[in-house]
Write a structure and sequence with these properties.
The structure holds 2 protein chains of 2 kinds. By secondary structure, chain A is mostly beta strands. Chain A has 2 domains: 124 residues, Sandwich (Immunoglobulin-like), CATH 2.60.40.2310; 111 residues, Immunoglobulins (Immunoglobulin-like). Chain A starts with a strand and ends with a helix. The relative contact order of chain A is 0.15. Chain B folds into 2 domains: 58 residues, no CATH class; 157 residues, Immunoglobulin-like. In chain B, the strands form 7 sheets. In chain B, strands 7-9-17-14 form a 4-stranded antiparallel β-sheet, with no helix packed on it. A 3-stranded antiparallel β-sheet of chain B has the order 16-10-18, with no helix packed on it. A two-stranded antiparallel ribbon of chain B has the order 1-2. Classes of the chains: A mainly beta, B mainly beta. Chains A and B meet through strand 1, strand 2, strand 6, strand 10 and strand 11 of A and strand 7, strand 8, strand 9 and strand 18 of B. Strand 11 of chain A pairs antiparallel with strand 8 of chain B, so a sheet runs across the interface.
Chain lengths: 286, 266
């Protein structure tokens, strides 16, 4: 049964390059299947879609000033070539920026595509599937290695804002807006304080925030930014602070923890006690 | 011998012994200083050079290994100077062997069957076929898988099986899924599901939800059908293809080509 099983490494590269400079990057593509396959390569430009790191290729026009080619002696970009079962092939991608390239970011994906092998019989009703695997290329064209970054923190929220000492966890959300022409990483922390004492610190994942786009924060070792109960009752403050190099003012929020469940249990016990007391009193009176 | 004389003798011997020890210590100390000064200076480091590069290892790890027991597995590296992850614009340095674990497997994508064949179709009865997609990504940013068809299911003379629009009242598109359970809604569609809905539930609520493929012939690009925002190993989904034709659908061979595209999130 024909199948598709490819690996591509590295999965993402990030470079700062000056106009007029050429760089090379070696990729390794592996055919993990038991069949010999025919594959081809291409590079497509993309733009962010949403705030969670998704990518869209719809209506994206590639810059004519960023030129891609393969440096391999026997393989050209777009040309098909064979790969034996379990075989690896190194592909050396050459990225050149023209002298007149605008000083901004450029986002591409280097794709490796397995060519379709149509083995459906005649008079069949069906589809021929094929696969494609890509590695992202984040380029900053700049005359300086240290690019100027301006950002802001939007929609820093905590949920729930008023909560019980036990049960539900607290989830922090925020959106980092990049107001500059170059991407940066969301390096920073959420510090949770109570009575000016640090209770907990969550470290942000260093996700890329692309030029003029926003990105939702996530925290290390989790999908979101969550802390688990229990909490002492009281008023808490949370501060989202980004790395100083990002030039974004920190954001603060507060939330409250009440002993709802403890009070409810006490009221329940009190009600049971009072009911029992009344019943006992009635019983004695009778 | 009188006791006083014995005590004096012991004191004399003790002070003599202490004096000798002090001399030995001083001689030993001078000897080690001498050794330190005259022996060649050795550094636990290694350098590899070639015409184009030079790699300098700042230190050798003095020990490493993996210990396991009931309920735990511990790997260790001893002797690493300044272990940790360090980053700056354009590079990330991960020092200490444990840091390689988030990158030990490459970005991989697998489709277990490339031939989707429905066989003979019966009008007004839905037919399904399936295959499985599996993805592995070391990136903590996760991945997205998109799907796109070159055209609707088409015959050689240009007759098509239309794209599914799902049940009337809850139409589906190439980017929005909806229930497709009635046998009066004709067309070709698909869904992606797995047991826990991991990665797919945002796109297909359950296995009764379908949508049709985005089509290059309609100037549409691939739509996301599965994604996660964390590193995964062998995360998979079952792709179910469904076709339902009316009795007015001309007989013949209907085919198209479908691409599944896996890319890491940025």
């Amino acid at each position: 049964m024909p199948n598709f099983n490819l690996s591509l490494s590295p999965e993402q590269i990030e470079y700062v390059l000056k106009p007029g400079i050429t760089i090379t990057q070696a990729y390794e593509v592996t055919n993990n299947s038991d069949n010999a396959i025919t594959i081809s390569t291409e590079v497509l430009a993309w733009q962010p879609s949403g705030n969670n790191g998704n990518i869209s290729y719809q209506d994206v026009v590639a810059s004519p000033n960023i030129i891609f080619s393969l440096n391999n002696a026997d393989i050209k970009l777009g040309q098909t070539f064979s790969l034996a079962p379990k075989a690896k092939q190194q592909l050396v991608l050459k990225v050149s920026s023209a002298q007149e390239t605008s000083l901004e970011d450029y986002y591409y994906t280097f794709f490796v595509t397995q060519q379709s092998q149509n083995t459906n019989s005649n008079n069949a009703i069906g589809s021929q599937a094929t696969g494609k695997i890509g590695s992202n290329i984040l380029l900053t064209v700049s005359n300086s290695e240290n690019t100027s970054i301006q950002a802001q923190i939007n929609k820093f929220t905590v949920s729930p804002k008023i909560k019980d000492v036990f049960f539900t966890p607290l989830t922090f959300k925020a959106e980092i807006k990049n107001n500059s022409q170059n991407f940066f990483k969301t390096k920073g922390t959420i510090i949770i304080n109570k009575n000016d004492l640090k209770i907990k610190e969550l470290e942000l994942n260093d996700n890329n925030v692309l030029a003029n786009y926003s990105r939702n924060i996530t925290c290390k070792d989790q999908d979101t930014c969550t802390i688990q109960a229990p909490f002492w009752p009281g008023r808490y403050t949370a501060t989202l602070k980004l790395d100083e190099s990002i030039n974004a003012p920190s954001a603060n929020i507060s939330f409250f923890v009440f002993p709802f469940s403890i009070v409810a249990i006490l009221i329940l016990f009190l009600a049971i006690f009072l009911t029992g007391f009344k019943l006992r009193k009635r019983f004695i009176e009778k | 011998m009188k006791p006083k004389m014995i005590n004096k003798t012991i004191k004399d011997m003790s002070s003599l012994h202490q004096g000798r020890m002090s001399i030995y210590r001083q001689v030993g100390f001078i000897f080690f200083i001498f050794l330190f000064l005259i022996t060649p200076k050795t550094i636990s480091a290694q350098t590899f050079t070639s015409d184009k590069l030079k790699i300098q290892f700042g230190n050798f790890n003095m020990g490493s290994g993996k210990q396991t027991g009931g309920g735990y597995s511990l790997t260790n590296t001893t002797g690493q100077n300044a272990p940790g992850q360090f980053s700056n614009q354009g590079f990330v340095l991960k020092s200490g062997f444990q840091y390689i674990y988030d990158n030990i497997y490459p970005f991989s994508f697998q489709i277990d069957n490339l031939n989707i064949n429905f066989g003979d179709l019966t009008p007004d009865v839905g037919s399904t076929a399936s295959n499985n997609i599996t993805i592995t990504t070391p990136s903590r940013r996760g991945y997205q898988i998109m799907a796109v068809a070159n055209r609707p299911l088409s015959s050689t003379i240009g007759t098509i099986i239309p794209d599914a629009t799902c049940d009337s009242g809850t139409p589906c598109t190439e980017s929005v899924s909806a229930p497709w359970t009635t046998n009066t809604a004709f067309g070709f569609g698909f869904n992606a599901t797995n047991t826990a809905g991991i990665g797919t539930s945002a796109y297909f609520t359950n296995s009764t939800y379908y949508r049709h493929f985005a089509s290059l012939s309609n100037q549409e690009t691939g739509q996301i059908i599965m994604s996660e925002s964390k590193p995964v190993k062998d995360s998979s989904a079952k792709i179910t293809y469904k076709v339902l034709v009316s009795k007015f659908q001309p007989a013949g061979s209907y085919e198209n080509s479908i691409s599944f595209i896996a890319v890491p999130k940025y």
